[in-house]
Amino acid sequence: MINYKKHLENVIESILHKNGLSFLLVFSPSNIFYVTGSDAPSALVISQNGEVSALVTRLEYVRAVSEMRLGEAYAFTKQDEVSEYEKIIKGDLYEAIAQIVGSGEKIGIVGGSLELKDQLKGKLNRELADYTKEFYLLRRSKDDEEVRLMEQASRIAEQALRRAIDLIEPGVTESELAGEILRVIVSSGAEPSFPPIVAFGEHSAHPHAKPSLKKLMRGDLVKIDLGAKYQGYCSDMTRTFVYGDPSEKQKKIYRAVLRAQEASIDAVKEGVKAKDIHMIAYNVLKEEGLSAYFNHGLGHGVGIDIHEEPYLNSQSETELIVGDVVTIEPGVYLAGYGGVRIEDMLLVQRGTSRTLTFFTKDIAL
Amino acid sequence: MINYKKHLENVIESILHKNGLSFLLVFSPSNIFYVTGSDAPSALVISQNGEVSALVTRLEYVRAVSEMRLGEAYAFTKQDEVSEYEKIIKGDLYEAIAQIVGSGEKIGIVGGSLELKDQLKGKLNRELADYTKEFYLLRRSKDDEEVRLMEQASRIAEQALRRAIDLIEPGVTESELAGEILRVIVSSGAEPSFPPIVAFGEHSAHPHAKPSLKKLMRGDLVKIDLGAKYQGYCSDMTRTFVYGDPSEKQKKIYRAVLRAQEASIDAVKEGVKAKDIHMIAYNVLKEEGLSAYFNHGLGHGVGIDIHEEPYLNSQSETELIVGDVVTIEPGVYLAGYGGVRIEDMLLVQRGTSRTLTFFTKDIAL
């Protein structure tokens, strides 16, 4: 069970107290989930004393009340007629926030679009200091329980992949395998972290292929990228296989990608620059004459969001911290031929890393 | 097959020519899909002569090329090393747009966040007139082929619901039914238009319940809300049943919601105000003493997006137009007891409407 109280304490200490804020306003479903265990509220107002008021639409109110592990939920509405079970604050979202913060002096904000911030500043008639970066730093550093959920999410995804592979035979479609993956993930009480990618043959050259009615043929590359989200935390993993006997060209590409992945995984630990890890994979592919076909970043952070900080690419100056969970997923994509991507999810530790995804990496099915 | 050329002509005539624009910039995946048949590009630049340049990340380039039914795709990148199969424009997205529009005088924009518009104005050093509203009006009016795809999407969703109902027995979980729904939708070559909602018993009081490991018991309300997205176009439908013999209270709520739905469906036709249709359902529920538990709008437009204009709620002044496809979905939710929602999707016509969803509305399974 996630210790949401600890998450809240982190936010209060590292953001409210440190910066002398009266209130912190939190927007975006995943930021709100990090503090409360529910993504149903539209906004949180956290006071310097640690009181959490969640502002919720009437539509999401009952779900918020049942999911929230801390704080008080209020439905905001302009309607007069409401039910007996709703605690109401009269007004739109901005008016509701204004009522809670009152004359509070220094107010901070996390998340929210420019539109929202503009509206809010107008309503509150005060400047809002932005602490989104500081909040994301807290979210990056996963505690033991968060890691445990991400491991469970990985086990569910691996089971789904195994079941999908059981269905493999000539003529099976990408869509059938993707459908089975979704069935297993959702039946297990999880959600997909993203729509699974299943791509055969030359279709695997699309890094983000959408599953289609394309049928499997002997000799096809089979690329499958999938993840589960379990109790709010995501997993992410990609495997590529050949159905039948791999050709020399397929083997050469596969080995190059695997070598790039292994070399960059070896470098993952606290304090290393994200772009340096990207470049290790890039340089292996460069040696193989394949770097022009590695057309994306090496990886990304994973947590409540499937893509979150830190991002690992050729530009990223961020240093990895203990508790970061990141993917390492080099890929090579040849238009009209096919693509190979191999992806694992790793926990960053002091001096090393721990792999959270375990499915076999054999090229043959 | 959607006639994307016709969609483009509509945009050129009603927006570019009518307002004397040199170029129109189009953002957001569904707006881009409406013109090209692909949601892979990050932006489109449409010239007054009807040339369409799609700006795509390197990651999405191959998919864009294979999906786009018109226009030319260019990968924008700052990298020097690219593959032989990519047509490249050097620079970030804003620089790439600046290169295409050159000294073009009057430039319009559709979609895009405030952040994006601010950045773009800075880079282009010109004002951008916003035509998002005009573009959405074009998207609202579905042509025959768009309607045909939404009917096919509805047939796929209905088949998925039938298969899920086949699995119903005491002890089956919400997650198992949701998993089967996803399997059928995705295996058919479609995608879910949204994660299906399956809620038993008091859980059905959450309008947007997430499927859980809750087990079915005799006498439970069973609320299922699902949709498929087929070749880019969505369907949406909700059914509520009782497993076993319905109680008097369940029957009373069910009949009230059904009567509210039927009365508002009868009013759907060209020229009617959206809020007037909402109020018909509201007033039926008011007569039954249930209106305080109808905590959301009556419906919404459906098309490339699962939620799009027009919105049907107590505030909406919009008048329905021929070709609008809208949902009619009154609901009553009693916290701690359960909820009933019944939803169909309708095509707005002159003087009448046509229902696009056909699943039985019996209260008993």
UniProtKB/TrEMBL annotation, chains A, B:
PANTHER family: AMINOPEPTIDASE (PTHR46112), XAA-PRO AMINOPEPTIDASE P-RELATED (PTHR46112:SF2). SUPFAM superfamilies: Creatinase/aminopeptidase, Creatinase/prolidase N-terminal domain. Residues 14-139 form the Creatinase N-terminal domain. PROSITE patterns: PROLINE_PEPTIDASE. Pfam families: Creatinase_N, Peptidase_M24. Keywords: Hydrolase, Metal-binding. One of its GO terms (molecular function) is metal ion binding. Belongs to the peptidase M24B family. Residues 149-349 form the Peptidase M24 domain. It comes from Thermofilum adornatum. This is Aminopeptidase P family protein.
